[in-house]
């Protein structure tokens, strides 16, 4: 992914509040905003801990404790060959080496990182990187004449550009779209849009029935994704059909976002590893994320760095509306993984593209 995603033929995002970032899926956030989470920062944090012999025996911050005890399998979660982590002594030479290798990894002239400088001898740093593009098995259709009226958590409405498929054409996407859940009366639904590169996973969309955090949303989706295979071949054309069928309506807003997060203040407090240098104190904890979702697929790039100083045609159908016209989650998620490698809560239209007549 060169200069960040340009969606051909579409104008810029709507003017609105900045996109927020969180470092852990159990963190609380303002549901009226658009918020990003990716375990890219977690991957670097884990590498830094490993370099010090494992998680600390004591951490002075609640966020630090959550990061230290997060259980996941990076090799299963992150997209194969499209992520990388470095950890070592926080020196100028180490930073230049890392940034050079990151530039080569991205195929670009410059690396994406900002230097983490240690204030004392023995300071440690990490740098982590995610860069992936996924293409839908079959591109969807862009709506050129009709906007989607997106209703935010704050009650505002915006006319935004969207893609999807409706009517008889929906049946042509039976193999490309998995309906994970659809509960009209309860007001929630979830779909999985299959991508060509199986090692990169799929795009998962979920409109919850009410307020949920990332961790809760992931728990629900894990159950539905695992149960989808058991439902294959049953209830064809009914409301419980696990595939998209003729008569269904799928509408998804275009997204294009850039988010920056600084977690340093939330990670203050001594970290005791039971080794010379205790207590270690976090002196940098940053993350930058770019993401786009369009009719052809999705693209994501995340760069994180941090460091610490020591001592311191089907049967008769029941049409379903799978329309993402109010706040929803979007994930990039590999098959068989317990966690996604990218997630966003779209609580407002800050990442959406204005519809132009």
Question: Would you spell out the secondary-structure blueprint of this structure?
Answer:
Layout: E1 20-21, E2 34-37, H1 40-51, E3 58-59, H2 62-69, H3 74-77, E4 83-89, H4 92-106, E5 124-135, E6 141-142, E7 148-151, E8 157-160, E9 162-165, E10 177-183, E11 188-193, E12 202-207, H5 214-231, E13 249-253, E14 255-262, E15 271-272, E16 281-294, E17 297-309, E18 321-323, E19 328-333, E20 342-346
Parallel strand pairs: 1-2, 13-18
Antiparallel strand pairs: 2-20, 3-15, 4-5, 5-17, 6-9, 7-8, 9-13, 10-11, 11-12, 12-19, 14-16, 16-17, 19-20
InterPro entries: Serpin_sf (IPR036186)
Can you summarize this structure?
InterPro entries: Serpin_sf. The protein has helices spanning 40-51, 62-69, 74-77, 92-106, 214-231; strands at residues 20-21, 34-37, 58-59, 83-89, 124-135, 141-142, 148-151, 157-160, 162-165, 177-183, 188-193, 202-207, 249-253, 255-262, 271-272, 281-294, 297-309, 321-323, 328-333, 342-346.
Describe the structure.
It is a single chain. This protein is α+β, with helices and mostly antiparallel strands. It contains five helices and 20 strands. The protein has helices at about 40-50, 60-70, 75, 90-105, 215-230; strands at about 20, 35, 60, 85-90, 125-135, 140, 150, 155-160, 160-165, 175-185, 190-195, 200-205, 250-255, 255-260, 270, 280-295, 295-310, 320-325, 330-335, 340-345. It has a seven-stranded mixed β-sheet with strand order 1-2-20-19-12-11-10, with helices on one face. The chain is elongated, with a radius of gyration of 21 Å. About 45% of the residues are buried.
